[in-house]
Amino acid sequence: MAIFVKMLELGPVLTNCYLIMDDDSRELVVIDPGWDGKVILQEIKMLGGVLSAVWLTHGHFDHLGGIADLVRGNETDVEVCLHSEDKLLYEDQGGAAFFGLSIEAGPEPKCWLKDGQELSVGRFGFEVRHTPGHTPGHVVFYCKKENLLFSGDLIFQSSIGRTDLPGGSFKQIMSSIKENVLTLPDNTKILSGHGPETTVGQERINNPYL
Ligand SMILES: [Zn+2]
Ligand SMILES: [Zn+2]
Disulfide check for 157: which of 125, 167, 198, 201 has CB 3.0–4.6 Å away? Predict the structure, then answer.
């Protein structure tokens, strides 16, 4: 059976939070708990999932605003995973103050993501790909078996992540996309941090930045 994916659009800038679950073991991972940790917990309960980890594509506030409530409210330990190059951003509430917002600080990550690292949700393996440009420690999660890419704010349908925020680089984001997205098969489904889903093939043809 295929991996189960549920998307919740949350918070002030409509960030896509993904719940991914192995139907067999019920192990569940949350990618980018953008806002409303309690809503995410409720959803996990409804799905009958067992939350084991939070994977962060990067350290921006709109991708982690719900993490404090989510981790505190869960009955068992939750591993928080982030790339170390976004550590300072994470500790600075993901830059929320810059947008006139504030979020509750999340727990200290215990799992520091590295390029090429293998993660899993039950029987589904994911490869971590370091994709700097939007932020220095941005990563994407690729499941080859399921033809699935969780792309955070690296690439969107017909657009790319902004590079004008601190630590951003247009040159870097372009090479991250070329090396880590355009090298994937056309039928790879892209689930991004904002907006609708797309595919590698669709972006290869329609994305005006590429
Ligand atoms: Zn971002
Ligand atoms: Zn974002």
Answer: 198
Domain layout of the chain by residue ranges: 4-206
Ligand 2 centre to CA of 15 (Å) is 6
* pLDDT recorded at residue 1: 77
Report yes or no: 146 and 124 within 8 Å, Cβ to Cβ: yes
22, 210, 58, 36: which is closest to 141 by C-alpha? 58
The ligand with the least distance to the CA atom of 135 is 1
| Cα(24) to centroid(ligand 1), Å | 33
For residue 156, give the ligand nearest its CA.
2
pLDDT band at 66 (very low <50, low <70, confident <90, very high): very high
Return the CATH architecture of domain 4-206: 4-Layer Sandwich (3.60)
* pTM score: 0.97
8-state DSSP, 93: G
Distance 14 CA to ligand 2 centre (A): 8
d(CA 170, ligand 1 centre) in Å: 14
Dist. CA 1 → ligand 2 center (Å): 30
Q: Please, which residues bridge with residue 112 across strands? A: 82
String of b and e for 25-50 (b: at least 16 CB within 10 Å)? ebbbbbbbbbbbbebbbebbeeeebb
